[in-house]
Amino acid sequence: MNSNCPLSLSIVTKKYLRAYYKILDTMIKDMTSVILTKSISDNFIMQMIPHHRAAIEMSKNILRYTTNLELQSIATNIISEQTKSITNMQAIQNKCSKITNTDYENTYYMNEFKVISDMMFNEMCSAQITNDVNANFVREMIPHHEGAVRMSYNVLMFNICPELKPILYAIISSQCKGIQQMQQLLWHLDRC
């Protein structure tokens, strides 16, 4: 748990955080234990699905506790958009796995993926904790979204499955919009 954590956490905050860290641990394990193939498209899909699943579970977690209407809307949108994105990736995965890349490309892709994912994992693990679960969620979800955007840009640098490209652009667009919304909400939450 984060060293910025206050000495005394409410029962609600403790329950929220217990679920959050369990979801985060599962995401890290599932994203880093993918059995890699020669296809960057396939590898990205296998890495992004657990990333999206974690966002869905984190959103369901905050919905158990928040009464903030704007945050309820953000969390509901995350669930909807990322469920759709998972379905779209699963629908093209078999076809995309046939688009292979060179060893050099795969190494370059994975080196950059590791830098991006390590930064994201670190920021999510060390997000500031307060007794405001709304602010906690936003501080945790912003680096999660930023990681998805950077991972999507990373995969776009390579020869990938054409059907994957619109999904990547949708991830970039929706998550950049989500980052903006959450930054504005956090500004207001921190001043209340």
From TrEMBL:
Pfam families: DUF305. Residues 43-186 form the DUF305 domain. Coiled coil: none annotated. It comes from Viridibacillus arenosi FSL R5-213. InterPro entries: DUF305_CopM-like, Ferritin-like. This is DUF305 domain-containing protein.
